[in-house]
């Protein structure tokens, strides 16, 4: 996974036996101390044998205890050196890039498609799911009733003609969102995606895409890319849809 600095993946952790789990728990609680220990010291503290520690190290793709300590120290150093960009800098970058006719035309085209649809659905996973739920509520508040489809396992039996699905994804590569889009496309729902990358898989399989291109940020294994541009895009589209409804009345 991009941005991952941990030695301990889910797959490796689930492979630990009872004794190896004792080592893992001790290491996680005493990382700063372990990097200066001898193998015998760790064995005594974790109440295991040195041979158990060697098996533990090999599961982490380390040839021995010394290599394990080096890798552990690198993960500690890398995490402590992580710098988080200023939110003001990221927003300034976004607005500088999008305050132009081309971007506004994309929002206008998206708003036009939404205003003509009979049913509006929102989908997304993780933080994108949270914003999808917010988007559905915001559009509904401005008079365009929308539904957030939280459970992508929900069976879809009816035809979704004249509906539009707004799919949110930072990377544009989330496999669950891609599968959800495929199910909705099979039922004839039009797809409008909002992604950070206009060349992503989700952008490519969508009928329309609005991309915002901010620098992706990771902290350890977590994607902490700002979602403020997504909120701006959702609210701007909703306002444009509302304006169109006023003019048509």
Provide a short characterization of the protein structure.
By secondary structure, the protein is an alpha/beta fold. Helices cover 55% and strands 12% of the residues.
CATH topology of the largest domain, anyone? Rossmann fold
The CATH superfamily of the largest domain is identified as: Glucose-6-phosphate isomerase like protein, domain 1
Order of helices and strands: HHHHHHHHEHEEHEHEEEH
Q: Could you name the CATH class of the largest domain? A: Alpha Beta
Biggest sheet: strand arrangement: 2-1-3-4-5
How many strands, which pairing sense, and closed or not: the largest β-sheet? 5 strands, parallel
Low-confidence stretches: 1-5
Percent range of helical residues: 55-70%
Give the CA-based shape: elongated
CATH architecture of the largest domain: 3-Layer(aba) Sandwich
Q: What is the assembly state of the chains in this entry?
A: single chain
Q: Radius of gyration over alpha carbons?
A: 24 Å
Percent in strands: 5-15%
Number of helices: 12
Q: How far apart lie the N and C ends?
A: 50 Å
Mean residue pLDDT: 89
Instruction: Please report the total strand number as a whole number.
Output: 7
**Structural class assignment:** alpha/beta
Structure description:
There is one protein chain. This protein is of the alpha/beta class. The chain has 2 domains: 72 residues, Winged helix-like DNA-binding domain superfamily/Winged helix DNA-binding domain (Arc Repressor Mutant, subunit A, Orthogonal Bundle), CATH 1.10.10.10; 162 residues, Glucose-6-phosphate isomerase like protein, domain 1 (Rossmann fold). Helices cover 55% and strands 12% of the residues. It is built from 12 helices and 7 strands. Strands 2-1-3-4-5 form a 5-stranded parallel β-sheet, with helices on both faces. A hairpin with a 2-residue loop joins strand 6 and strand 7. Helix 8 crosses helix 12 and helix 9 packs parallel to helix 12. The longest helix is centred in the last third of the chain and has 21 residues. The radius of gyration is 24 Å and the shape is elongated.
């Amino acid at each position: 996974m991009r941005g991952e600095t941990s030695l301990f993946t889910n797959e490796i952790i689930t492979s630990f036996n009872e004794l190896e789990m004792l080592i893992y728990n001790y290491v996680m609680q005493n990382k700063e101390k372990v990097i200066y220990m001898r193998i015998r010291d760790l064995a005594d503290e974790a109440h295991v044998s040195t041979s158990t520690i060697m098996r533990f190290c090999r599961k982490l793709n380390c040839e021995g205890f010394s290599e394990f300590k080096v890798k552990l120290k690198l993960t500690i150093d890398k995490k402590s050196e992580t710098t988080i960009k200023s939110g003001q800098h990221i927003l300034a970058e976004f607005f500088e890039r999008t305050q132009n006719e081309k971007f506004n035309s994309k929002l206008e085209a998206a708003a036009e498609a939404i205003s003509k649809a009979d049913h509006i659905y929102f989908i997304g996973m993780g933080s994108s799911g949270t914003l999808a739920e917010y988007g559905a509520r915001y559009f509904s508040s401005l008079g365009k009733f929308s539904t957030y489809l939280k459970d992508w396992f929900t069976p879809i039996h009816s035809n979704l003609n004249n509906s539009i699905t707004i799919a949110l994804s930072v990377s544009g590569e989330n496999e669950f969102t891609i599968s959800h889009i495929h199910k909705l496309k099979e039922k004839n729902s039009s797809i409008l995606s909002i992604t950070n990358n206009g060349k992503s898989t989700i952008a490519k399989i969508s009928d329309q895409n609005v991309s915002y291109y901010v620098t992706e940020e990771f902290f350890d294994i977590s994607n902490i890319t700002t979602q403020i541009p997504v909120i701006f895009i959702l609210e701007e589209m909703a306002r444009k849809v509302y304006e169109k409804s006023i003019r048509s009345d």
